[in-house]
């Protein structure tokens, strides 16, 4: 078997080979022998190549002539047919063969059958082991062999299973109980339950809830109870007195809380989560001069409430155009919009007032619900107003007032607007 460069370092069966086989550079039996043309001596091919790497114009190391060489095939056949001992002969291998003759070469022997040859572990643990002991290594000694934890039976590589990273967490590893005087070894997963019953565990007195501060081993609890029965009785009595006083105080607090709740429920029932406003009366003057619609001034539904405007179309609008008197409501941007609930929901009552007496008014209710279009009920910026929402058929042009009804007087109309705003989150805004 040759080195990366240089000749063969084998132990030959028939003694030292003839000198003509020897490389004059490495002094070993030539590997891939080359004959120089100058003095006809023999060298390893790799030795000559190494020589050529060291200088630009290599010369023969023996005669110093310009170096030129050729492959000596005859000599190579003679050398490779030499009988040699196995490189592991000193270890006990008795194999004899040739350097590279098919079937009997040293490489074939070492790579397949030599039981003394060092081979890499097939588990890739990094070690090289004699082929004869490889099986034992793989099953008994390799750090990468697959084993079961002797405690929890988890399967894994030996190096991991026997490491602290596993043993520090292994649920079935026996661990010495930490209570002084207890010599039991408990599986890690049972430690907590063992401590609940361990006679050596330090525990508080079972009367600690009534004031006994004694701590003792669990096995001493019964003896302590016998020795401290009068103390425990006195502590229990004091605790009962204190509990009675606390119970009376709690009853009183519960009574007061119940009264407060009933009072609040009554107020909630009273308000019904409604924001109710006082009525607003609006005057529509010079009725005969309005060709299209009339928009009232902006008004607030209550102090701190919503801002609105009434829109009146004497000749009708939408579905009531040409046949009815139409009335609509628009929301305006107000001073208190930040504190109000949006979108607006509730009822707006529009009354056309009878100017003869305070009854027989004409009334319609505008409902703002979840079904109302968003553009009609959402908050708008200051100086803007929402889309109109109301009754396009508020009052028919064909309606004839009764003798005690008069809606128009001095070319003017009066409207009364009442608003009830339903609030789900701010019932205090009223």
Description:
The longest helix is centred in the middle third of the chain and has 43 residues, at 229-271. 23% of the residues lie in helices and 23% in strands. The chain has 10 helices and 23 strands. The two termini are 106 Å apart. Strands 14, 15, 20, 21 and 23 form a 5-stranded antiparallel β-sheet that branches. Strand 1 (33-36) and strand 2 form a beta hairpin. Among the domains are: 7-113, 2-Layer Sandwich (Herpes Virus-1); 279-421, Apoptosis, Tumor Necrosis Factor Receptor Associated Protein 2, Chain A, CATH 2.60.210.10. It is α+β, with helices and mostly antiparallel strands. It has helices at residues 45-54, 73-80, 106-112, 134-141, 158-161, 164-167, 191-195, 221-227, 229-271, 374-377; strands spanning 33-36, 42-44, 69-71, 83-85, 96-98, 118-120, 128-130, 146-148, 155-157, 174-176, 185-187, 202-204, 215-217, 274-276, 280-284, 294-295, 299-300, 307-313, 324-332, 346-352, 362-368, 389-396, 413-422. It holds the Pfam family zf-TRAF. Residues 23-64 form the RING-type domain.
Task: Report on the biggest sheet.
Answer: 5 strands, antiparallel
What's the number of helices?
A: 10
Mean pLDDT: 89
Give the CATH architecture of the domain at 279-421: Sandwich
Kindly name the structural category. alpha+beta
The CATH first-level class of the domain at 279-421 comes to: Mainly Beta
Distance between the termini: 106 Å
**Which fold name fills CATH's third level, the topology of the domain at 279-421?**
Apoptosis, Tumor Necrosis Factor Receptor Associated Protein 2, Chain A
Helix content: 10-25%
What is the global morphology?
Answer: elongated
Would you identify the CATH H-level superfamily of the domain at 279-421? Apoptosis, Tumor Necrosis Factor Receptor Associated Protein 2, Chain A
Strand content: 15-25%
What's the β-strand tally?
23
Which stretches are low in confidence, meaning pLDDT under 50 for 5 or more residues running? 272-277
Radius of gyration: 56 Å
